[in-house]
Amino acid sequence: MRVDDFLAEVDKAFDGDPRTSAPLDPTFERIAATVNGYTSANELAVLNAAARVMPADECYLEVGSYKGRSMCAAVQGVTDKTFYVVENYLEFGMQGQEARAELEDNLRTHAAHADVRLIEGNCFSLLRRPGLVDRPVGVYFYDGEHTGLSHYLALGIIEPWLADEAIILVDDATYPMVSGAHEDFISRHPQWRVERRWDAETKGDPRWANGLHALSFRRDAATARGSDEPWDVRWRRLAYLSSLGPGQKAAWKAIHRFPELIPLAKKLYPSKKASSID
Ligand SMILES: C[S@@+](CC[C@H](N)C(=O)[O-])C[C@H]1O[C@@H](n2cnc3c(N)ncnc32)[C@H](O)[C@@H]1O
Fold first, then answer.
1. Which CATH number does 3-219+226-272 carry?
2. Membrane-spanning regions, if any (predicted)?
3. For atom 8 of ligand 1, which residue has the closest CA?
4. What is the pLDDT of residues 229-241, one digit of tens each?
């Protein structure tokens, strides 16, 4: 995936500077108004621009679909490409089967023309599984859980799967813990850089929700395919799998059983509820 093609396609999708203008195509406003979710029309237009210019021998991989808003938008006008969704149905009190049914229903309505493949489970376990996707990832959209550790790991764990040149879109990037995590990661991994920052000016900004950053990756000899997992990624992955991941799972289950814990959870964990149409 050529990073320059993506940047040019984003410019074409907006009526002026994307930071201060709306997408030209009204489809994204319509999807934001009809599919429950947390991504804004501007963010949806950027995801779609990435999908449009991605070569067909690469794939688009999203972590965190919720009810499918972002994926429904990404595939608009794109018929010949492969899209993967990784979702563990953990957050927001979603019950597995019920949540999946709603996601599938939205994909049937808005994405029936596209090849969208659902993979159920925790991305940090799944992305260590050989053969999970059938081609290099040209576009990666991370919209999963938001802790500094998860965001750092979200970049480290995808690197082996990426195409030699790839675009990585990180949602909620205006949160300091999110941008801090990718800046920290990039300082140790010079193959990565931040290409664009579309930041939220207010909490729940109508244009950019909680902000979206576009990162790029360009493979070099140090990141050749088959390289060992770097130590900074390895220890975080092991820490996540042994404590943070199971702890969060237990916390979400407890919140579902005891809704009186919600105010406490909101203090401990940044909420995106403001931008949902629920
Ligand atoms: C903010 S929502 C995604 C919103 C969606 N992209 C949209 O456009 O509305 C985050 C989703 O990520 C999922 N999630 C969180 N952590 C995850 C993980 N480690 N692996 C897979 N899915 C995860 C949650 O279950 C939740 O549905």
1. 3.40.50.150
2. none
3. 70
4. 999 999 999 999 8
